[in-house]
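Dear colleague,

Following up on yesterday's call, I've attached the two folding results inline so they're easy to grep. Please treat them as preliminary; we haven't cross-checked anything against experimental data yet. The first protein's sequence and structure tokens come first.
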Amino acid sequence: MWLGFSRMETHDDFDLVPVDEISINDISVAEFRAKYLVPGVPCLFTDFSCSAGDAAAWSRSFFEQSLIGDQEIYYTKADALLDFGQSLPLRSFLKQLDEGTPIKHHAPAFPPYEFLLNSKVALMEQVDLRALQRLFPDASFAGQGPWDWTSWPLLPPYPPQLFVAGANSTSPGHYDPDMSHTLHWCVFGHKRATLFPHSFVSEAALWQLAWEDLRKPIDWTKAPECLKGLRGWTVDIKPGQMLFMPSRTWHWFSTEEVSFSYVLRCRSFSSVLGSLKFFWGLQSPAVTLPAYGAMWAKIPPDLRQKMIRFRFLPPALASPIFRASILILGLPVYLWLRVRSGMSSLLMSCTRVKPAPRI
């Protein structure tokens, strides 16, 4: 057994195994940490909705009722980032998805008009996380608990999000570079995911697969052949189930039907060393602040006034001088990321991933 891969299955391109399905209420803290959290092995909580407090009632009909269904939700085309240029009442948005319109709601972390945070109903406050939080170390850093996202982007974790998309849509492969553990709860719908453990050696090659639909055969004349036989996991996520992805797990998602997911994160580190890895990573404040500032500058002023749940001063983020200052201060980070990518590419060119043994 290696990193949770004990039941290898045949796959045309990779060696994939189904993730373990466990009960969030029955598994002990010691077992969860020993089998999944510490070794970095994903698992599927099959009964999270039973422990979600008032959010246990979340369903499609719940979100289509009069009060919530009338709430405006911003959206974009299925292959683009949210631009705050278009919105529909949630009820109408879901109807558009039923009709096959290629749109989605996938909000960036900051500064977003996030449906969860700004709806007329305090949706985030309905989610009871106690059954989940007991499984993770309650280690604070810089005075903040591991689930406290209010200092983003200066400190993880990334804020909670909604992902709402239609049937047969996909998301590009990536890992969450804020270094947090990710919990992906399927409220309604049906999703599938292909997962791989993080490795510095394979990182550059996996980025080249980011826009591939892993449900289809890989064209190895164009993709890095060294990834053939890479070990990973596969999972189907159905309503009420929550996928646990350890820090920096690579993931490719697809939706098999109209799906509505709630995603939250738990910071994986509580030390200065961990914070240094974050500050020199892909979501360093030196990278995110200029991008968020440019996004903030494009948001209509009346909409900015509604974004009151965040601590940062919007005028500073909208200032070109502020963004330029961050870029100058962050230049060493940008240079390091380029060097890091080059080192990963070099190592991958000299390394071949051995296929897993057939059982």
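Below is the second protein, in the same order (sequence, then structure):
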Amino acid sequence: MQSADTSKKETMDLKLKHRKSYACCVCDKTFNGPCHLERHFRVHTGERPFKCEICQFSFKSQAEITAHSIVHSIERPFACVFCKKTYKRVKELNLHISSHTRENPYFCSKCPASFSTNGGLTQHVVPKHGSKKGKKCQYCPKMLRKVILKLTCEYTQAKKHSAVQFVKRSFPEKTTFKNTL
């Protein structure tokens, strides 16, 4: 039995060695296929090539536009067991069900209040407890309360900004990333 397990492990090691690796020229993240690298690269360029035919909103991937298409559907397949109200998404249904069960998993750390959503908690904390706005990221409109989040955001946004500038300089004729492979 030991030799069969060893043989499987050796086979897996060989497969991993032969798998090609594609690295992002901006952040050095690696991918096992050129299509995965191409999809990732849109994080740096801001390219959104998938356009909704109904509302013209654009997306970075086919998966995102597929998930978005639910917005335009008239189908509402998820029904509440308490009141029969229907929803397009399970997440919306679960949020609604919490209004029947009085389930409030989000608790305020400064008072006994609790809420069914994280957004509800945030809307409570800011006006009731005077939560400070925080510092604005110099690259994007985000207001971040914790210093480490601000630094992380600025680092990420700076890398994106640099990548966009690199792509604009390298491909002024506005070619797509696919044409550069």
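For the second protein, one point worth flagging: Helices lie at 2-18, 34-45, 62-68, 90-101, 118-129, 147-170.

Best wishes,
A.L.
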